[in-house]
Amino acid sequence: MTTLIARRLAQLVPTVLLLSIIIFSLQHLLPGDPALVLAGENPDEATLAAIRAQYHLDQPLIVQYLYWLKGVATGDLGESMRHNRPVLDLILLKLPVTLQLAVMGICIALVVGISAGVISALRHNSTIDYATNIASLAGISVPNFWLGIMLILFFSVYLGWLPASGFVSPWEDLKMNLATTIMPAFVLGTGIAGVIMRHTRGAMLQALSSDYVRTARAKGLNERTVVLKHAMRNALTPIITLGALEFGALLSGAVLTEQIFTIPGFGKLIVDAVFTRDYPVVQGVVLVTSLFYIILNLLADIGYILVNPRLRS
């Protein structure tokens, strides 16, 4: 395992370098001049020149990239053109909000999806199997914005149990924090739960029909041991990959849900930065999100080995 981790960590350097080039290049393909956005209405040439000089926009792209890369290597992601604050400060302010939603959402998805998938596989072609398949299809098909609005109408407007919008830090009031995040986390988790359920069901059906499971049953092992120790352990391998990718998607794709529940998270930060041509923020957010994907893939590889000992060779 140590060799695998060392090899994957060594691969991170060229991967991150190539990633930084792609992020920087694609960012500058966006139409518009950020200097014009920052200068406001009817700017004069002197103001535009000063803004371009301040943010190195008057330099060739390769020079701008080297300035940015030097800052990234030292932990400096630049300064926001709109907020006049370090990009790293903005990310550290917004990321914990989306990170909490993503963790809660993926936990809901894993618990519901894996449980339903295992039960569906064990009750293959039964009423329970059909019901769980219909529920998973509904979870995948229902749009997040519609489900979010329905939850607000029912739990906030009709019952009055939960706040309709906003966010409270867990350090201020943990109970209120859970009250403001449980609905958006449920919205994020339902669609992923449906996907995980379908994959778990398919993997479990394949595992239950394999030779090693039949051998375990022939040895007289009880059904619980056969299912949990032999079948489910091998069926979890594709679920680890799916869970890691979906968790990364939650970090970068919770924009609509955050807008519905008025949550000041990571998604809103990137959307506002794109509309205002705030290059440093866009580059910093995309870079951090991409690094999360790389780290999650590394953790997924480690998870394979922990779950399936045959892969350790």
Quickly describe the structure:
The protein has 313 residues and is an all-alpha fold. It has 13 helices and no strands.
Structural topology:
Blueprint: H1 2-27, H2 34-39, H3 45-54, H4 61-73, H5 87-122, H6 127-141, H7 144-158, H8 174-208, H9 211-218, H10 223-253, H11 255-260, H12 266-275, H13 279-307
Helix pairs in contact: 1-13, 5-6, 5-8, 5-10, 5-13, 6-8, 7-8, 8-10, 9-10, 10-13, 12-13
Task: Calculate Rg over CA atoms.
Answer: 24 Å
The top level CATH class name of the domain at 94-277: Mainly Alpha
Question: How much helix, percentage-wise, in residues?
Answer: over 70%
Q: How many DSSP H or I helices?
A: 13
Sum up the overall morphology in one term: globular
As for the CATH topology of the domain at 94-277, it is MetI-like fold
Q: Total number of β-strand segments?
A: 0
Oligomer: single chain
Mind explaining what this structure looks like?
Helix content is 77%, strand content 0%. With 313 residues, the chain is mainly alpha-helical. The chain contains 13 helices and no strands.
